[in-house]
């Protein structure tokens, strides 16, 4: 029997020292602005005097018919924007990745680079190029469609209420398709040869192999991409601003939360900016994104089966 | 290799930084004033004509013209002023946007600037406090609305300049039938084009200029009254005469369409003159908004549009004042009006315009009664903002997604929700 030896552990100062720089940078650049935004949303300003209103701004946002109408319109448009990305960008991205990982594919590097190229271009360039491509006056679309006899199907898509949001969403899909493609491609490459060989021995080849073997194995990557798409879409602003302007026309058909926030916070033409209502919208956006991401991390991701090799 | 490259880069940039410091020290005695503006189209004119003229008369002061895109100007300026990084001279939007800046203490009073007496009360009204006691920007120019037309196209199709609304639509029909030209170059994608070049252009004829505008502010007339709905009804008829896909046509598209000679009529703001002068290769003429019946009084929108004030936080208040005083001079009025045909001086100085098209616009001041845009004074103070709502309504009415009556009702309801006219 021996007494348990109490070794006095030295204080591990180095942990704090090593954490400090990152913590300081993160706090000044992320935490303080975030808290300040949340705080701003609880105040209002009348004749240059700032006063505390509690949840008053939120009551205005959801209670005043004009604010509420604008907000729900932006939210619904944002959901549609996200749905189009989920329905088009991610499946097509996965399909492209599956095609790229076919072993006997020639010119793989060229395809990969080409498909990823738009993602690296500035949204200003993308917005401008597509506005020109789709322009009914100078665009190539009407002439191409005329050449194959489909001129009658062409319309000023970016200017019609029922097509503008779909058109802008598809431009955004075109731009960002490289991201799911690359992530899935990497996930597919990390599947060990043995698993594939075992599948082949059991006679699972070709398309069946993709559905039964590869897809379950890349499911966590798909989940991650969905969350990234969600966060990016609900923070989106740039492409709509560049192609449709801050008023997100026609008749607010392409107005999403980002453009709604911009107009409110910074003002537009004769409308002066309102920091407090802007911060209120920013807070609501933050809560929407936070709750969905938390739901994904806490509920869905825990139930997802992972395979260790 | 990489290490050497890195070292030479560091050395190079250090040398550069030292050089910049030295050169800025060498010019330390020159004061540099920066102008904030939304007129990015005018950059060459400021750099080549206006600023050199001022610098010649005022040695020791350098001026930099630093414009922002028009749609971003207000937002960017407010942010810069709040952060204390804005330039010394602030180009002023008319009415409330600038009034708010003055109330916040960002702009100083210009009452004591020498030469302010060359502007009459109407010219100063757009940049004065509600009681008219303090003016905070030096008025620079107004813009006039009307229609510019392609003279060659009119000659080819065989139409005359329309005087009445009936003649106007008859001319459009004839041009459309003939088929060479798109009758009218305007789009609804940017929305403001429909409101400014459409509604505010033809509207004064219906609401009788200043009479209607003041009655609206006083609450004696409503946007749902026949005189205010009628311009929307006329606008809705324009849709038949615009180019294919006008719903996705932007303002630059419309400008190009007309400048390339594809369209016969262009609903214009006078600021377009300078753009067309450099681009169009055909003869142009202009006519004011056609009246309802022959012999009716015509009204035009002669809108006080641009002025300049001093940033209260400027590090060089004396030099800034000098510049503002120069803006009131006959010299400036002449340079500005002639290098930017389409911006008409608001001062009492006699200015001879060399540009025939601009002269045509300014002649209307004698023939018609003038007014300013109906939504600018007081009525765009609240939320929803009447000016912004008017953009949407004008575009919707032309696109056919809202009837004139519904749009007018929506605007009046929005206005009623915050605006209570003084009894």
Please describe what this structure looks like.
The complex is a heterodimer of chains A (309) and B (423). With 309 residues, chain A is mainly alpha-helical. Chain A has a single domain (58-301), classed as MetI-like (MetI-like fold, Orthogonal Bundle). Chain A is 69% helix and 4% strand. Chain A has 13 helices and four strands. Chain A has a two-stranded antiparallel ribbon. A two-stranded antiparallel sheet of chain A has the order 3-4. In chain A, helix 4 (108-120) crosses helix 8 and helix 5 packs parallel to helix 11. In chain B, strands 1, 2, 3, 4, 5, 6, 7, 8, 9 and 10 form a ten-stranded mixed sheet that branches. Chain B folds into two domains: 2-141 and 304-355, Periplasmic binding protein-like II (D-Maltodextrin-Binding Protein, domain 2, 3-Layer(aba) Sandwich); 143-302 and 369-416, D-Maltodextrin-Binding Protein, domain 2, CATH 3.40.190.10. Chain B has 17 helices and ten strands. In chain B, helix 8 crosses helix 9 (209-218) and helix 16 (386-399) packs antiparallel against helix 17. With 423 residues, chain B is of the alpha/beta class. The model of chain B is unreliable at 15-27 (pLDDT under 50). Classes of the chains: A mainly alpha (309), B alpha/beta (423). The interface between A and B is large, with 32 and 46 residues.
């Amino acid at each position: 029997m021996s007494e348990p030896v109490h070794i006095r552990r030295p204080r591990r100062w180095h942990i704090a020292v090593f954490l400090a720089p990152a913590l300081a940078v993160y706090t000044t650049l992320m935490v303080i602005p975030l808290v300040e935004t949340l705080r701003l949303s609880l105040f209002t300003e009348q004749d240059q005097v700032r006063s505390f209103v509690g949840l008053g701004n939120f009551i205005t946002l959801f209670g005043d018919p004009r604010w509420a109408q604008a907000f729900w319109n932006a939210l619904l448009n944002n959901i549609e924007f996200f749905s189009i990305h989920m329905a088009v960008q991610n499946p097509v991205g996965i399909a492209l990745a599956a095609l790229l990982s076919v072993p006997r594919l020639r010119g793989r590097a060229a395809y990969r680079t080409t498909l990823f190229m738009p993602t690296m271009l500035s949204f200003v360039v993308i917005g401008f190029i597509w506005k020109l491509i789709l322009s009914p006056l100078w665009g190539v679309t009407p002439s191409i469609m005329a050449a194959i006899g489909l001129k009658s199907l062409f319309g000023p898509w970016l200017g019609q209420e029922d097509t503008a949001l779909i058109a802008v969403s598809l431009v955004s899909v075109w731009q960002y398709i490289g991201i799911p493609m690359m992530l899935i491609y990497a996930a597919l490459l990390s599947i060990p040869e043995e698993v594939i060989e075992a599948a082949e021995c059991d006679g699972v080849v070709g398309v069946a192999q993709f559905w039964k073997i590869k897809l379950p194995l890349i499911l966590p990557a798909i989940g991650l991409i969905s969350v990234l798409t969600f966060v990016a879409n609900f923070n989106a602003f740039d492409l709509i601003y560049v192609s449709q302007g801050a008023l997100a026309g026609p008749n607010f058909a392409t107005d999403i939360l980002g453009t709604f926030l911009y107009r409110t916070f910074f003002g537009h033409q004769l409308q002066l900016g309102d920091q407090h209502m802007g911060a209120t919208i920013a807070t609501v956006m933050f809560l929407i994104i936070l709750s969905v991401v938390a739901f994904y991390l806490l509920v869905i991701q825990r139930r997802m089966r992972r395979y260790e090799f | 290799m990489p290490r050497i490259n890195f070292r030479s880069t560091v050395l190079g940039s250090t040398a550069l930084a030292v050089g910049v410091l030295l050169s800025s020290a060498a010019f330390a005695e020159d004061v540099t004033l920066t102008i904030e503006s939304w007129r990015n189209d005018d950059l060459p004119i400021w750099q080549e004509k206006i600023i050199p003229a001022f610098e010649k008369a005022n040695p020791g002061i350098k001026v930099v013209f630093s414009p922002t895109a028009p749609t971003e100007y207000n937002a960017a300026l407010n942010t810069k002023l709040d952060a204390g990084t804005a330039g010394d001279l602030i180009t002023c939007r008319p009415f409330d946007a600038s009034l708010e800046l003055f109330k916040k203490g960002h702009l100083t009073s210009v009452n004591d600037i020498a030469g302010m007496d060359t502007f009459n009360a109407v010219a100063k009204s757009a940049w004065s406090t509600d009681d008219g006691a303090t003016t905070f920007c030096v008025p620079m120019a107004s813009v006039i609305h009307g229609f510019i037309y392609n003279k060659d196209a009119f000659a080819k199709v065989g139409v005359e300049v329309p005087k009445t609304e009936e003649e106007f639509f008859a001319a459009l029909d004839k041009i459309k039938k003939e088929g060479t030209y798109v009758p009218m170059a305007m789009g609804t994608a940017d929305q403001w084009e429909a409101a400014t070049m459409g509604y505010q252009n033809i509207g004064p004829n219906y609401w009788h200029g200043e009479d209607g505008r003041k009655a609206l502010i006083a609450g004696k007339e409503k946007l749902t009254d026949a005189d205010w709905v009628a311009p929307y009804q006329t606008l809705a008829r324009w849709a038949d005469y615009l180019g294919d896909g006008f719903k996705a046509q932007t303002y630059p598209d419309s400008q190009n369409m007309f400048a390339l000679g594809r369209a016969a009529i262009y609903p214009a703001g006078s600021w377009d003159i300078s753009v067309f002068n450099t681009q169009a290769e055909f003869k142009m003429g202009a006519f004011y908004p056609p009246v309802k019946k022959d012999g009716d009084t015509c009204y035009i929108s002669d809108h006080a549009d641009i002025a300049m004030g001093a940033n209260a936080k400027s590090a060089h208040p004396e030099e800034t004042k000098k510049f503002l005083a120069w803006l009131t001079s006959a010299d400036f009025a002449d340079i500005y009006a002639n290098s930017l045909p389409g911006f008409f001086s608001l001062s009492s100085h006699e200015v001879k315009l060399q540009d025939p098209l601009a002269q045509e616009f300014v002649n209307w001041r004698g023939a018609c009664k003038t007014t300013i845009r109906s939504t600018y004074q007081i009525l765009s103070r609240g939320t929803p903002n009447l000016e912004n709502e008017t953009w949407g309504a004008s575009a919707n009415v032309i696109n056919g997604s809202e009837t004139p009556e519904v749009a007018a009702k929506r605007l009046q309801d929005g206005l009623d929700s915050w605006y209570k006219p003084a009894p």
